[in-house]
Amino acid sequence: KEVVSKNFIELAIDKDLAEGVYDHVCTRFPPEPNGYLHIGHAKSILLNYGLSQEYNGEFHMRFDDTNPTKEKTEFVDSIKADIQWLGADWKDHLYYASDYFPQMYEAAVKLIKKGKAFVCDLSAEEIREYRGTLTEPGKESPYRNRSVEENLDLFERMKNGEFEDGSKVLRAKIDMASPNINMRDPVIYRVAHMHHHRTGDTWCIYPMYDFAHPIEDAIEGITHSICTLEFEDHRPLYDWVVRELEYPMPPRQIEFAKLYLTNVVTGKRYIKKLVEDGVVDGWDDPRLVSIAALRRRGFTPESIKKFVDLCGVSKANSSVDYAMLEYCIREDLKLKKARTMAVLNPVKLVIDNYPEDQIEMLEVQNNLENPELGSRQVPFGRELYIEREDFMEEPVRKYFRMFPGNEVRLMNAYFVTCTGCEKDENGNITVIHGTYDPESKGGNSPDGRKVKGTIHWVAAKTAVKAECRLYENLIDEEKGVYNEDGSMNLNPNSLTVLKECYLEPSLKDAKAYDSFQFVRNGFFCVDAKDSKEDALVFNRIVSLKSSFKL
Ligand code: ATP
Ligand code: MG
Ligand code: MG
């Protein structure tokens, strides 16, 4: 990788290595298994994995499963699949924070013995009151000066299940007058008689995030613990924990800004509501930006990597346009995929001077910009489907496609002159007629005649019928994501289902996640959930054109 300019995290790592603070780099991605990963998590995954690669170091995958309420095995599996798909290979470094519960307990005992932690009987509400505010110092707990012996005894009894939830907590003894509220004797262990998805009922006390996380990092030998900006003012506590526990090589926390997409829903609570209300068909609905949804829509790991790279790493929160993500997938696919013909909104075109039962195979280049993709055979015949919008009985100004008397090019095939159309009793056009010029095979006329319009087509006899789904943003962008009452401004046109599309036969055997360019219509991907062998369903990944500029 050509390094143009390093980001602030790389500069910090360079400095640490130069000063001998660490002699190697070890990063981690620590999701809580309480939901599906989204594009923001992809940024964190690729950042941490990328740094481990760049510095020839290690990358750890760790489930931060210290909070038993919301965690589920289902999420563990989906998270693993998503990270593997993104290509962040953790090799044999897969960890569960819950495996460290014994060490965390020992760490708490160590703090108690050092006089740095105490068992407190204040209620949650009292603790909050005593904590003070930004402008007022906190008040010390009346239990703060319990003896080491008493604390050891009470903490052990907490572990043994003698106390009810919320009746006692273990707190770090730091400084109730600290300007940083996180340092005002934070709670580090609580009593919670809850079943844990991995440790079962072994524990009835659980460590708090700010205590558990630095221990997890230190146990694994993480050097740079990269997290998002909201943890910046927790860093003094992180440093306090690793210092007081006297780890030989304390990890360093570095914060960066979260990735936000403009007018896109990422909050778990909101997605859950969309699923429950049936607005979307699951966490992987192609309109969402969970990694599962992006994969189902047809995004590639490469496109997401490119996107994350373009966003860069920063200390300032900002929001990126979805169009940039679309740009990245377009760039990724444009040379990799065959340019095939599919008619999404069909009307029949009959070439009256073409032999009735003849089917002729035409040799078509798969991608004119990438000859390596080779060519394929596309059948042509007397009856074709073309897009309804490629015909106008009475053309408007500058309309160069089919209208009576006009000659156009059928892409990769022949010149055709439109001779008229048939209509039903309601005036709807049912069939268009034309005649072809046999001399113009391949799409050029030997006499040098020019045509202005080129349209795509699919031979009716051999066409594969399929469903295509077109997407727009779930959100009405004019109005923004949320109303004042917290409800969402949904775009009623976010999904268009086209049930009767016709594809050229080369697409017949397309499998889940296969993607193609459908000329003029965009890039499409076989839907992994709903597509069947004899009833293909395609998602439009992205259209071909955009006003997006880099
Ligand atoms: P969410 O509430 O959206 O699920 P989270 O931070 O609670 O996010 P975690 O499972 O705790 O989810 O996140 C795992 C890692 O992903 C953390 O290190 C977190 O900082 C990072 N992360 C989460 N959201 C983003 C984002 N939008 N941009 C970059 N990194 C993120
Ligand atoms: Mg999460
Ligand atoms: Mg979290």
Helix tally?
A: 12
**Strand residue content:** 15-25%
Helix content: 10-25%
Shape: elongated
Q: Looking at CATH, which topology of one domain would you report?
A: Rossmann fold
Number of DSSP E strands: 27
Report on this model:
With 550 residues, this protein is α/β, with parallel strands linked by helices. The protein has a domain at 8-256: HUPs (Rossmann fold). Helix content is 24%, strand content 24%. The protein is built from twelve helices and 27 strands. It has helices spanning 8-18, 39-54, 73-86, 101-113, 124-130, 148-159, 209-220, 235-244, 268-276, 291-297, 301-311, 322-333; strands spanning 26-29, 58-63, 94-96, 117-120, 169-172, 187-191, 205-207, 224-228, 252-256, 259-261, 318-320, 339-340, 342-343, 346-351, 359-365, 375-381, 383-387, 407-410, 415-423, 429-437, 454-455, 458-459, 464-471, 495-503, 515-518, 522-526, 536-542. The strands form seven sheets. It has a seven-stranded mixed sheet. Strand 2 (58-63), helix 3 and strand 3 form a beta-alpha-beta unit. Helix 7 (209-220) packs across helix 8 and helix 11 crosses helix 12. It is elongated. It starts with 7 loop residues before the first helix and ends in an 8-residue tail after the last strand. The relative contact order is 0.10. The mean pLDDT is 96. Adenosine-5'-triphosphate (ATP) binds at residues 30-32, 35, 40-41, 43-44, 227-228, 258-259, 266, 268. One magnesium ion binds at residues 31-32, 34-35.
